[in-house]
Every structure is written in structure tokens, then in C-alpha cells.
Design goal:
This protein is of the alpha/beta class. It has 20 helices and 14 strands.
Length: 557
């Protein structure tokens, strides 16, 4: 376990022991203790950790929380790790870590290197994250980009937290939307060969369909005109589908997102998962045939209404394939936990998906659905709706091309998934402190320049005496670096990777402040070597944070 997490656990244990001693001495009533937790105080003057246990006990005992805090604190002793224990209104017990312990952590960080921050929170459990999973009927847009960054960053963090992780893209290559895509492409193909045909009413009218048809004509000529229409439409549709999937992969590669598995919807029918899943639900009494259709009896599990799984024409619904897909995930591939990241238009699908997982005999808590809300593009104060290049929607690739991968990843990540977000293209391109991406990466470049200077001067700081790092600015930087394992644990528990963006900005701000107040390469060799150790450890922590966010780590800017 991380040293920081160990310290936190020891503080919790010391609070528990002190509360029991206070009860045994008669200063607290002998009631069951609630769960004890410690938090990081918002203000530095309140120490490094605080517990609100006295406030919880005040509600059940009727005693003054400050008196409870005083009686518990009386049984907590300071040690090599804890320098001070104080109480604060309205009823907190605050803990301040010793300077000596804090300073020692610089060497611990350097010793752990790139592994610093890793924790064993997941204990090797097997987690699948399915994200993006866009219909392969058009190019990716910015909403898909947000889901891609959320999923890939969450995968990075969960790996650091001790989980085995599989990243999956679910290809919707069956159903009505593929039929509409195929018919649309065949119509555009014929039109590009001067054949007068109409687009299907439910078709895809974006200019990308015409571009796709022209590309196929360039490669295949009029081959599909000479074939029977049913055969031509099917073959042309598959060719177009393959090309669209390839383009989706290219856009995701641009964003630094790679998947371990691309899973085909069609395979659920071909390999029998659909039949098996529906059979289990029918055996468990959750399938009913009524009104010429087949229904999942959601109301038996607390839902407001039942859900159609097979339409009256015999075709499965989108929900039916999702049932089969989650049967495959949990029962056949045996993931311990499944995390689905869906777009805002799937919000209403969540509760019935949880219900059907339970109906399959799986604990619904093993499924977590994250809804990624909408993204609004702005250029300064102006709303951006249409691509200048194509006159259609703005594609993800266009945004990446304009602002760069790092800005895309950071800005897509900087708000919680359930919050709608504005993406300011002008801000994302700024090379100034106003742009958090530039500000954070500049901190890493500044660290790298210091270490290069030391190398040029031939300074060996491996034996630097870190006990000299007693200044408040130096200790503040150490304290912030020590938060990384807790941030990883927080994200692994909450599945909210946006906390990394706030942490990286705070860390960069504190380093820039340290840089202004503390000259690193000085005329004093001992101070120089000690501070170079601190700077090297800061580089490890900042680099790890950027890596978790999937961003580049520039040494020069």
C-alpha cells in the first residue's frame, strides 16, 4: 500500500482506539461508533487530515461536539509521522504530518519512479470499460470524443489502481440503422454515376456519404451497377461499413485512444448469445408474449413499464441486443465489473439495463453506466455549429486538427461526465497561462530545463540531503505530490477521472510558485542537490499525472 494511504489508515485506527478509550474512561457514552473517515481540510492551517467523528457522535449522544473532540483527542498521541493533533470548531480533530516524515517521501517517490501513485485498490479484479461504440454510419463528433477521453483515462487510472482492464468498442453493425446506411450509400453511389435515384427518407444525408461513394467509385468503378441490386446493395454496404469503421479507428488513434477489443453486434446472433440470454429471461419469468410482440417484464422489477425485445415483425430491438451483449460480458466472459459509457441520449435506457442484468441473475451493482453529457463548441463567445469544410457537423478529427490532441483530451476531461460542457476552441489554442494545458505542460518543461542545467553543470544530486528541504514552499510542494495516490483511489472509487485535471493544475501552480521563490541551482552545493531531488520527484509526479490523462509530456516549450 502507498505510504500516504498507510498513514491515513493509521490515523483512522488511532481515532477509533482513542474513541474506545474515551468510552472506557466514561468521557463518552458506550454507543456503537459510526464508520470513521478522514478528509483533507480545505485550509492548510487546519493540518493535513481531519475527522468529523465528533459531529457524528454529537447527533447520537446529545453532547457538545467540541467537548467530544477534546475528549477523543486527549487519547491520541503524536509520533514520528504525526506532529500535532488539534481540535477546531464546530467539532473537528485535525492532524498535521511531521516535517521529517514529509521530507522522507521525496526519496520514496524517486525510489518508486514511474510506479509512484500506483495502489492495490482493485486487487486484480477484471473490469471491462465499453465506450464510444458509435454507430458506424458516420464520422465521430465531439460528443464521441468526450466519451473516448473519459473511457481511456478511466482505464489508465484503474490499471494504476490495481485492476485488470479491457477496453472495448461495440460495433453496431446490425439493425435498422445499418440498413438505412446501406440504402443511402447505394443511392449516392448511383447518383455519382449519373443515375437518377432518390435517397431513402430515413437515409444519411451528410456530405460524407457522397465522398464515400466517390471513393468507392474511384477504387471499384461501376462494378455494383452491373450486379443484381440486392447483392450489390449488400456488398456495397459492407464495403462502406468497413471504410467507416476504419475512419472511426483513425480518428480515435489521432486522439490517442486504442481498444483491446472491437466487438461485433452481429456476432451476438451468429454465436447464439441472443438466444441464450432470452431463454434465461423466459425461464426466470421475465419474458411475455403480448400484443403481437415479445416483452421484457420490467414492471416485475420495479420499472414503470415493460420493454419490447422483439417487434411484431419479428426483428429484435436495440434493447434486445444489449441484453445479449451484457449476457456475453458477465456470464460468458466473466468480467467482475462492467462500465458502460453512453451518450446523453441513452439516459432513459440505464434503469432497464440494470433491471435486466438483475433478471439474468447478476448483481446489478456490478454494472455501472456513466452518461457523458453534451459538448457545445465555442470560438470565444461565439457558438460553432457547422463545419466550414463540409457544411455539415463538425467532426472530431477537425477539432483535433485545429487545437491538438492534448488540448482535446484535457478539455474533454475537465468537467464531470454528467455536466454539459463548453469547449472553447480559441482558449484551447492559446499559449498562455489562461490555457490550463499550456500552463501544466509548461511546468513540466520548466522542470526539465532545471534538470538539463544541472546535467550541463555536471551536478550529481543522487546523494542530496533532503533533510534541508524545510522551507514552507518546499513542504507545500511535497504535500501536493503526496496527494496522487489518494486521487487515484478517489477516481477508482467514484469513476470520475475529471479530478486529474484539477490536481494537475494545482500541482503546476504550486511548482511555479516554488520556482519563483526557491532558486534550485545555487552557489550552495548542498541546497542545490537537495532541491534537485525535490524537482526530480516533482517531474515524476507531474509526468505520471499527464500520462494518466493520456497527454504528452514535453521537455521543451
Amino acid at each position: 500500500m502507498s505510504e500516504v494511504l498507510l498513514i491515513r489508515q493509521r490515523i483512522i485506527e488511532s481515532i477509533q482506539q482513542a474513541a474506545i478509550q474515551a468510552q472506557q474512561s466514561g468521557k463518552l457514552p458506550g454507543i456503537p461508533l459510526p464508520e470513521i473517515s478522514v478528509e483533507r481540510p480545505q485550509k492548510a492551517e487546519h493540518g493535513d487530515y481531519a475527522t468529523s467523528l465528533p459531529l457524528k457522535l454529537a447527533r447520537s449522544t446529545g453532547q457538545n461536539p467540541l467537548i467530544i473532540a477534546k475528549n477523543i483527542a486527549a487519547f491520541i498521541s503524536c509520533n514520528a509521522e504525526i506532529a500535532d493533533v488539534t481540535i477546531a470548531p464546530p467539532g473537528f480533530i485535525n492532524f498535521t504530518l511531521s516535517k521529517e516524515w514529509l521530507i522522507k517521501q521525496v526519496n520514496n517517490i524517486l525510489l518508486q519512479g514511474n510506479k509512484y501513485g500506483d495502489i492495490d485498490y482493485g486487487h486484480g479484479k477484471y473490469v471491462q470499460i465499453e465506450f464510444v461504440s458509435a454507430n458506424p454510419t458516420g464520422p465521430l463528433h465531439v460528443g464521441h470524443g468526450r466519451g473516448a477521453v473519459l473511457g481511456s483515462t478511466l482505464a489508465n487510472v484503474l490499471k494504476s489502481a490495481g485492476f485488470k482492464v479491457q477496453k472495448e468498442f461495440y460495433i453496431n453493425d446490425a439493425g435498422n440503422q445499418i440498413l438505412a446506411f446501406t440504402r443511402s450509400l447505394f443511392a449516392r453511389y448511383q447518383q455519382c454515376l449519373d443515375i437518377d435515384v432518390e435517397m431513402p427518407a430515413e437515409g444519411y444525408f451528410g456530405s460524407y456519404m457522397t465522398d464515400l461513394a466517390k471513393e468507392i467509385i474511384e477504387n471499384c468503378g461501376d462494378k455494383f451497377i452491373k450486379m443484381p441490386s440486392v447483392e450489390a446493395e449488400a456488398e456495397l454496404g459492407q464495403l462502406g461499413l468497413d471504410k467507416m469503421i476504419a475512419r472511426i479507428k483513425e480518428s480515435l488513434e489521432l486522439l490517442g485512444v486504442r481498444f483491446d477489443q472491437w466487438f461485433s453486434e452481429r456476432s451476438l446472433y451468429k454465436n447464439g448469445q441472443y438466444d441464450k440470454a432470452i431463454s434465461i429471461l423466459r425461464q426466470n419469468g421475465y419474458i411475455a408474449d403480448k400484443e403481437s410482440a415479445t416483452w421484457f417484464v420490467s414492471t416485475a422489477l420495479g420499472e414503470d413499464k415493460d420493454s419490447v425485445v422483439v417487434r411484431s415483425d419479428g426483428t429484435p430491438t436495440y434493447f434486445a441486443t444489449d441484453i445479449a451483449y451484457h449476457y456475453n460480458k458477465f456470464i460468458e466472459r466473466k468480467f467482475d465489473r462492467v462500465i458502460d459509457i453512453w451518450g446523453a441520449d441513452h439516459q432513459g435506457h440505464v434503469s432497464r439495463m440494470e433491471a435486466v442484468v438483475g433478471a439474468l441473475g447478476i448483481n446489478p451493482k456490478r454494472l455501472k453506466v456513466i452518461i457523458s453529457q453534451l459538448v457545445t463548441l465555442r470560438r470565444g463567445g461565439e457558438l460553432v455549429r457547422i463545419s466550414k469544410r463540409s457544411g455539415d457537423m463538425i467532426t472530431l478529427s477537425e477539432v483535433i486538427e485545429e487545437v491538438g490532441v492534448d488540448a482535446c483530451r484535457f478539455f474533454f476531461l475537465c468537467r464531470s461526465a454528467d455536466s454539459q460542457m463548453d469547449f472553447d476552441l480559441e482558449l484551447a489554442k492559446k499559449e498562455s497561462q489562461d490555457n490550463p494545458v499550456y500552463y501544466i505542460q509548461y511546468a513540466n518543461a520548466r522542470i526539465s530545463s532545471i534538470l538539463r542545467l544541472a546535467e550541463e553543470k555536471g551536478i550529481d544530486f543522487t546523494d542530496g540531503d533532503i533533510s534541508l528541504l524545510t522551507g514552507e514552499t518546499e513542504l507545500t510542494l511535497i504535500r501536493k505530490m503526496l496527494l496522487l495516490p489518494e486521487i487515484i483511489e478517489l477516481i477508482a472509487n467514484s469513476l470520475e477521472p475529471h479530478h486529474l485535471t484539477y490536481y494537475s493544475q494545482d500541482l503546476a501552480t504550486i511548482f511555479h510558485s516554488f520556482y519563483k521563490q526557491c532558486r534550485v541551482v545555487t552557489d550552495d552545493p548542498d541546497t542545490t542537490r537537495a532541491r534537485l531531488k525535490l524537482v526530480a520527484s516533482a517531474k515524476l509526479v507531474l509526468s505520471k499525472t499527464l500520462h494518466l490523462m493520456g497527454m504528452t509530456i514535453p521537455d521543451r516549450m
